[in-house]
Amino acid sequence: MNKIPLAIETENITRYFKDVKAVNGISLKIETGGVYGILGPNGAGKTTLIRMLATLLNPTSGSGKVMGYDIVTEKETIRRLVSLTGQFASVDEDLTGLENLLLLAKLLGYSGKNAKKRALELLSGFGLTDAAKRQVKTYSGGMRRRLDIAASIVVRPALIFLDEPTTGLDPRSRNQVWDIIRSLVADGTTVLLTTQYLDEADQLAGKIAVIDHGKVIAEGTPSQLKASVGSNVLRLHINDASEVEKAHHIIAHNMNLDVQTNSDPYLLTIQTENVSAATSLITEITSAGIEISRFSLGQPSLDEVFLALTGKSVEEENVD
Question: What does the sequence similarity comment in the record state about its family (predicted)?
Answer without folding.
Answer: Belongs to the ABC transporter superfamily. Drug exporter-1 (DrugE1) (TC 3.A.1.105) family.
